[in-house]
Amino acid sequence: MLLPSVSIGIEPPELSIMDLDTGIRRSSKSPATDVASANLGDKEFADLEFNAVLIAEDGLEFNAVLIAEDGADQTVEDGSVAASSNDRTTSKSVGFSSELSEVEDQIQHRHWDFFLSHKQSNAQDTVQNLMMILTARLPGVSFWLDVEQDPTEKGMRHGVQNSKDVLIYLTTGLIESKYCQMEMRWALEFEKNIILVIETDERHGKPSIEKLIELCPPDLKHIFSDNVIIPWYRDPEFRGISVEKIIRARSVKKAGPAVVAESTTKLKFMTRSKSGDSQGGDVFDWTFVYFTVLCGVALPGAGRKTKAWSWAVRIILLTCGCMCMSRVFTTDGPAFWDRSTIMQIFIAHPIIFLFLHVTLTILKSPLIADLLENRIDAPVEAKLLRLKTRIGTCLAALLTVSLSFWGWSAYLPAFFDMYYMESVSQHRSPTLLLFGLAHGFTWILILPLFFGSLFASLLMMFVLQELSFMALLTSFNELSPEFTRSGITATVAANAGLNINELDLYHFQVSFLEKWKIYKTLQWRASIPFLVFWFLEFGLMSWSLWSLSQGFEADPSDLRVDRLRENWFLRVRLSWFLGSSLWFGAGAWIVALTPFGVSYYAWRMEMQAKQILFTHPGLRHSFLAFLAGFDLNFRVLFLHATVRLLPLYACILIVNTLGFDADAVRIWRAV
User: What sections of the protein cross the membrane (predicted)?
Assistant: First the structure.
């Protein structure tokens, strides 16, 4: 048991009472260092100033310097030191100042492994317990703790500067502390590896992450998005998980700035360098990184320029949506087709903005950082994910380019038509020239962003679904370490049965439950744009049913018929709208069926579980019964994206598609 006056891992090698006694006896033989004996009993402790200075010369000679205010004969435990004359004590004091200056210089050049930043009022005891647990786990590790070091502003800054890692223990009230804010800023200034540990017990100051970020100064907010937040469990069964995460999050000494060591997985989207440039991760293909960044999706670890561009894309989407709305009031010229088409395009802009915004919000959340850093260890699945993202990126890029060129050929000839370009010379309204130029150049910019942002968001949601499923598969590693190296299918094929016990199954259940909660949380956060989309699809059914009731016969009385006859590009526009519409075209089907892709993962999990056999016959039943209680399908409010309900939702899409197609057929037949 460590004495309260002895720092854990901060002071030089621990000096025990017997070592101290031996050192005193050794020093008493030297005339230069002969000192009065001291009694360090509990009664006299308050009356004495005790400084034990351990000075190593070539690793051989150790001198213990004792300063006694009383000058009386004193003893350590029951061992006595021969008292010298008062002249000896005086000669000892003469050389003390030089030794003290040497010790202070030595302390100023100390280095620590961890700097512990915390709120004293509610985390002092917890941090000291954490310190002792880490010391037992990592013998020789050192800590800077304010109660055991220089608590002045200068001392704290020195501690941060000379520590490898800055561990910030998050509790209520921490972010309001000016000293904790200073420690965070120093950690950023000295480019230290930051480890965030959060209290999980409300009785000991469990904070709200959202509240912490809200109260955090603007220059410190990115700490929560750039670093993993590790929960600190008080249950001994789960505390080991927290300790392992802290150990994995430690920095290692390398050339240049500190880097995170022992990461569970290499599934990082991007890493940030000093220059602010972005570099791709090891698993995600560069095509995926470039495409998503160009379309306004700032991946975790992106630089400032990329983040600024993502904000610009969102602003452009909303601005161009408002410009599309202005076309409703400009019916002059060949660019006008009908108001219903303009309204559909106008509503599509905020929907795509919502998809992009929700995706970026999820990516910035600490949940994703924790998922990438600590929850995934599935190398086999990671290799497949690289291939899947490459294929998905190629398809998304192909759709974006094709639909953009198709849309340009349908709209640009209309906006740059001489009707608008010569409006001033033909004595028309001068605003028509501005209308044509503004919408023409805007359409060139917005179409790739319009489709690219949509497909990039959907692609990103697919990747998040893959990652959360990989986290679930990582839980199976608790049953067999071979699952990590070879995968479940290959391991099961090579082994007749797994030899595990009930404790192994319990560890699997704890891990699976924790990651299933993350899985469902991501589903809920990603569901908002899909719920809005399907709500609008339900609303469009009334118009679609009315359109179908009108049949497919030609309607010469429709005003759009004459416009189609006069302008060839309106025919291209009609075909483009039917093919790419977000409400009944290819865009609608892609968006609508995306949630149903989650059923594939539910099926995969069921198949994986059935393959696993155990040597203990009773465990397999418990294993399958446990997994049966967790639904992996996409179920949020009224949207139940399951295989059984797929025909019902498909019928809604078919009705809307046929309703709009019937309207187009009536016009075409009239032309």
Answer: 283-299, 311-330, 342-363, 391-411, 431-464, 526-546, 582-603, 647-668
**Which residues are CB-contacts of 317 (< 8 A; sequence separation ≥ 6)?**
349, 350, 352, 353, 356, 446, 449, 450, 453
Query: Other C-beta atoms within 10 Å of 60: how many?
Result: 6
Antiparallel, parallel or unpaired: β 79-80 and 61-63? unpaired
Query: Pairing state of beta strands 229-232 and 193-199?
Result: parallel
User: Model confidence over 22-66: pLDDT tens digits?
Assistant: 343 333 333 333 333 333 333 333 333 333 333 333 333 333 333
**Where do the DSSP E strands lie in 191-240?**
193-199, 229-232
DSSP string, 579-627: HH-TTTSHHHHHHHHGGGGHHHHHHHHHHHHHH--BSSHHHHHHHHHHH
Q: Report the alpha-carbon angle 29-31-35, nearest 5.
A: 80
CB atoms within 10 A of CB 170: 25
pLDDT digits 0-9 by tens, 250-287: 864 433 333 333 333 444 554 333 333 333 344 567 88
DSSP state, 373?
Answer: I
User: Cα–Cα distance between 410 and 395 in angstroms, integer?
Assistant: 22
First-to-final CA distance of the chain: 94
| Residues 20 and 54 sit within 8 Å (Cβ to Cβ) | no
The DSSP symbol for 299 reads: -
Q: What is the identity of the amino acid at 227? A: N
What tokens appear for 473 in the block? 């598969």
Give 427's contacts (C-beta < 8 A, 6+ positions apart): none
Q: What is the CA radius of gyration of the chain?
A: 35
* DSSP conformation class of 207: P
Are the CB atoms for 544 and 658 separated by under 8 Å?
yes
Q: How many helices (H) and strands (E) does the chain have?
A: 26, 15
Distance CA(186)–CA(180), nearest Å, equals 10
Write the CA distances from 490 to 317, 484, 608, 617, integer angstroms.
Answer: 47, 11, 11, 21
pLDDT average, residue stretch 78-97: 40
221 SS3 class: coil
Taking the C-alpha atoms of residue 200 and residue 229, their distance in angstroms, rounded to an integer, is: 12
Q: How far apart are CA 287 and CA 386, in angstroms?
A: 10
Length of the chain counted residue by residue: 671
How far is Cα 321 from Cα 353, in angstroms, rounded to an integer?
10
DSSP letter at 257 equals S
Residue 407: what residue type? G
What is the residue whose two structure tokens read 């709009």? Answer: 660
Which residues on neighbouring strands pair with residue 231, listed in sequence order? 198
The token duo for 79 is 């061992």
Closest among 108, 131, 101 to 6, alpha carbons compared: 131
**370-387 residue pLDDT tens:** 777 777 877 778 888 888
Q: Are 328 and 317 in contact (CB under 8 A)?
A: no
**Closest by CA position to 518, among listed 456, 460, 464:** 464
641 φ, ψ to 5°?
-85, 80
Nearest to 143 by CA among 256, 6, 235, 255: 6
Q: Whose structure tokens read 């409703």?
A: 328
Host H or E run for residue 224: helix 222-226
What are the structural domains of the chain?
A: 17-107 (no CATH), 110-260 (3.40.50.10140), 286-670 (no CATH)
CA dihedral 21, 22, 28, 33 (to 10 degrees): -90
Asked if the model's pLDDT at residue 576 lies above 60, the reply is: yes
Q: Find tokens 């505390």 and name the residue.
A: 239
